[in-house]
Every structure is written in structure tokens, then in C-alpha cells.
User: What shape does this take?
Amino acid sequence: MTSAIRTVLYDLDGTILDTNELIIQSFLHALQDVVPEGFGREQIIPSMGQPLLNQMQLFSNLEEVSQLISRYREFNLRQHDEYVKPFPHVAEVMARLQQSGLQQGIVTTKIRLTTEKGLRFTEIYDYVTPGAIVTIDDVEQAKPHPEPILKAIEALGADPATTIMVGDSTVDMIAAEAAGCIPVGVAWSLKGEAILRESGAKHIIHDMRDLFELLGMEREPIA
Assistant: This one.
């Protein structure tokens, strides 16, 4: 890939922010006395990245899950700062891409409240191009539908052909391909690298700084 790429979109959870344990613990808290004994991270991880409503219905076998979602969000907000941190080199890479003139956006299945809370808490909010945060609150159809990615591309006046979508889940890869941009998976995904390749990832990065090579940049800036 070359410097023809002008726009970088990121999923949030599990991609640039390490919220994995917070998500797992939030589910375990919300689903106490609802799921069978032995329910745990092995059941939760495969569906991470999907909308919360869908996951709660899947895990609980209930149609009406508003109370479970409320319990999840109360715990998630209360414990947020104890668990959330950026993955290694995220701030460094986003800062340099911003300085290089690339547009950067967020496309997530989280609600806006916790999306902005996480970005501000980890001090990477200012690296995102203004207006380029698309959450579950902003769309009719969530990933894997391409709508959220297309909405971010439209907001930026970008071209799908010169846009990469970086994510940790199958829904990110499927949505990116459907939107006409380039799907890039992260090897630190809890779902595993093979799953991302099977779902359409054209590239896999093992370190956030691998984006520099994909974008035709030197790994270390020239002094």
C-alpha cells in the first residue's frame, strides 16, 4: 500500500482502546442469575463488536433486555477508568498521522457517551478529525452493514478507495469491504488473526506502528 491512502478509520473497543476486560466484566455483572452456570469469557468474546442489544438477546435468550442493558451500562460507566487504556503506540501513531495530514475517524457500535468518554480519558480525542465519530446512536444499521463507515466517509468528504478501516472483529472487516474501503485487522484481537483474514482483512498489523509502512511512511520520522 502507498501514501495514496488519505483517510484512516478505526473501530474503538479492542482496536485502539483496550476495553476487553471491562466489556467482559460488564456482561458478567449484568447477566448474573440470567445465564447458565459456567457462562464466561469464552461465550462473550466471539460476539464482541456487535451491538449491545444483539449480544444481550443472544446471551439471555430474551427479547426484552432493556433492564440488562441498563445494568451493563451502569457497571461499565462506574468501572470505566479502572480498566480502559489505549493499546501500545496508539497515541504516537495517531498524532503522527494527524501531523502528516491524514484524516482520522472512529466507527463504533458503542453509544456516543462512552465513545467520547473513552477517547477523552485516554487523551486521543484531539487526534480524530472533527465530525468524524460515528456511533451506534448515529445510524439506522450498525456494522456489519456498511452504513456507519459510509457515514464517516461522507462526513470527511473522503473516497472509499483511499480509506482504510482498522478493526478487531469480523463485523469491521465485512463492513469495510461492503463500503468499498480497505479492511485492516489487528493481530491483538481476542478473536484471533485467522478469523479476521477469513472475514475479509486485506492486511493484518501486529503493532500499531505497522500502519506507517501500510501508508508508505518511514517507521521512524526523519529528524
Q: What stands out?
A: The mean pLDDT is 95.
